[in-house]
Amino acid sequence: MWREKLSIKKDNAIAALYPSAKFLIVCLYSFCSLIIGTIKIEGYPFFLIPWFLIVPILCAASGVWKNFIKAFNKVLFIAVIIFVVQSLFVPSETIIWQIGFIKVYEAGLQSAIVLSFSIMNIAGMFIWMFQTTENKEISRALEDSGMNYKVAYVFISTLQMIEVLGKSSKTIMNAQQARGVETEGNIFIRSKAFFPSMVPLILGAITNTEERVLTLESKGFDVKCKKTHLFEIEKSGKEKLAAVIAILITTLVIIGRVLAWVL
């Protein structure tokens, strides 16, 4: 029986890579970030700073620069907080900078660079992957790799739940604001408006879960038979090249780390 197949067409060669190829790049990049973090000049892991430039360059080349900036702002905020806390509260004998009682310690600054840039490197690369790959692409790729369709659905549902709850939270806050509830201001005012919104948010999530269960049952999700898919995902043909480049860069990083250790 003939069935229509749907597929996603991407003009950008990097964004069109198969999800498994992107995941390989993410894993190797994260591994290299950990290795580069151990290469230090006078105790400072300065190589992590230029290494991070790969992330925005890759996002710009993939055509997802604007979406990357929006998603990366939260990661940057957390990284800045970690950088400040590590610099000020990890004591050592050497003080780099001091104004009054505020002191920046050498050991704290070294630890701050490692932690903050490691977080930005790894999180930034995951953001690139999810900005260039739709959830249904990941789900289809997981099933093609041999993963049980139920496990793949739970994984993708978990990813989608974050976005769904975020949108529901904004809707509830806007409704409260329309009723005259003050939702903007300092942290105490926002807390007063946020906590009461948790009850309808949780109840709405439970209701949506029940609706999803009924929808899946109506589509025969739990029926023991061969599953058909309306959506198909195809390889772009550049996956081998991307994998070779990623493996080559990882090899060079490992060789560089060994030479730095030997010399």
- Beta content comes to under 5%
Count of domains = 2
**What is the count of DSSP helices, taking H or I runs of 4+ residues?**
10
Counting DSSP E segments of at least 2 residues, the number of strands comes to 2
C-alpha geometry: flat
Low-pLDDT runs of 5+ residues are: none
- Give average pLDDT, whole number: 82
Describe the sheet with the most strands.
2 strands, antiparallel
Helix-strand string:
HHHHEEHHHHHH
Q: What is the assembly state of the chains in this entry?
A: single chain
Distance between the termini: 66 Å
Bin the helical content. 55-70%
> What Rg is obtained from the alpha carbons, in whole angstroms?
23 Å
Give a description of the structure.
- It is built from 10 helices and 2 strands, in the order H-H-H-H-E-E-H-H-H-H-H-H.
- The chain is mainly alpha-helical and 263 residues long.
- The protein has a two-stranded antiparallel ribbon with strand order 1-2.
- A hairpin with a 2-residue loop joins strand 1 and strand 2 (102-105).
- The mean pLDDT is 82.
Which key features would you list for this structure?
about 260 residues; mainly alpha; 2 domains; two-stranded antiparallel ribbon; about 65% helix; about 5% strand; Cobalt ABC transporter permease
